[in-house]
What we know:
By secondary structure, this protein is α+β, with helices and mostly antiparallel strands. It has a single domain, classed as Double Stranded RNA Binding Domain (2-Layer Sandwich), CATH 3.30.160.250. It has helices spanning 23-44, 76-79; strands at 6-9, 17-20. A two-stranded antiparallel sheet has the order 1-2. The longest helix is centred in the middle third of the chain and has 22 residues, at 23-44. 9% of the residues are buried.
Amino acid sequence: xxxxxCGVLVPYLPGCFSAGDTLEEAYVNAREAILSHLExxxxxxxxxxxxxxxEQRSGYPQYAGWLWGLVEAPNVPALxxxxxxxxxxx
Length: 90
């Protein structure tokens, strides 16, 4: 797409957005934005919003005509969960 970019909005994470020169690049960048956003929420001690599916929001008038997609991302809260370990040193 010459002279255009694809914007991405993640409605389940308010304030999380991304873009790319192509749709493929926009999806890659969206994944990075989601991971960064979730890590920031965890670091701040903020609540993580529940996951949602496109069909839950696709009927809303503010999203009329939008293209919906799914971005696979790891479960960041589970990855950042503290684990207690005991260490013995001489």
